[in-house]
Amino acid sequence: MNKPSSLDQAPLHVKLAVDLIMLLEQNQVSPQQVLDALEIVKQDFQHKVDSEVE
Q: What is the pTM (predicted TM-score) of this model?
């Protein structure tokens, strides 16, 4: 019988974060490049959220 891991029980946004971290680390992306890219992604998705509210 397999016991579910903590990640299996985690909220979707936590699972997504773990997947993104693994992807970025496997591709050896520098931490500064990751932060720069995440700022762009955050701005883009913030615009999408703001558009849904209007």
A: 0.75
